[in-house]
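User: Hi! I'm working on a homework problem where we have to compare a predicted structure to a textbook description. Could you give me the structure for the chain below?
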Amino acid sequence: MTRARSRAALLTSFFVACGGPLPSSPDPTAPTQISPPSPAPTAEATPAAAPRATSDDNERSEADRALDPSRHPVEMLAFFGIAPGQHVAELGAGTGYTTELLARAVGPSGVVYGQNPKWLLEKFAESPWAERLRKPSMKNVRRLDRDFDDPFPPEVKDLDAVISILFYHDTVWLGADRDRMNRAVFAALRSGGVYGIVDYSALATRGIKDVKTIHRIEDAFVKAEVIRAGFKLEGEAAFLRNSADARDWNDAPNAEGERHGTSDRFVLKFVKP
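Assistant: Happy to help. Predicted structure tokens:
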């Protein structure tokens, strides 16, 4: 099966499992996807299980499914190699959109740890996060209310993957000790485990100058920090890239308005040797 046909099969199984309509044709208004601006090794995505619908769950929410076209969850799960039975974690789980995807992908034999700092919970996430955790599909999720620079208790180890979705830039302006955070992720992963990071792309040479003002970060900066913790960059994916994005506007969820989902975002896959 070719890579294109394999991706089509994954998309079909995802929409069927989640109760959504099958896409009839590509959206001509969707962001243009381009290759990453700097060369990187190419990683072959491991097919991931589609998020599961359960008989007692009424499937995923309309709000979550409305995010799917801009988040590309099937491609994300496949690229990071999320599979049934795995033990995985999410840093900055927020209200749990990605956490639920992970929970459905690893299935009842897997485990998902959802980490949130207390300030985030107190500010906006506590109620929707707690409500989501009551869903039957979230039975395999373990809640972790911990700071970013100390995200896991000692018993959380030998994980298959740790994922950070659109949140690494926030750890910068919040003043988290990212070296300590990345070392904690390294320690919690098994050998060969994946550290997956998705974030809003800043212009080249901007580094961390835009992390608080327009919520963007340069991918080269993230690579350098994570590699410093001992990780190897295994690959990058282009499914969230958009060459038309000037990368000079605020793409935070409460500020992006009609441009929702059109920002240029990078997808990085690191591996613990």
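For your comparison, note the following. Confidence is low (pLDDT under 50) at residues 1-57. Residues 3-22+43-271 form a domain with the Rossmann fold fold (CATH 3.40.50.150). Good luck with the assignment!
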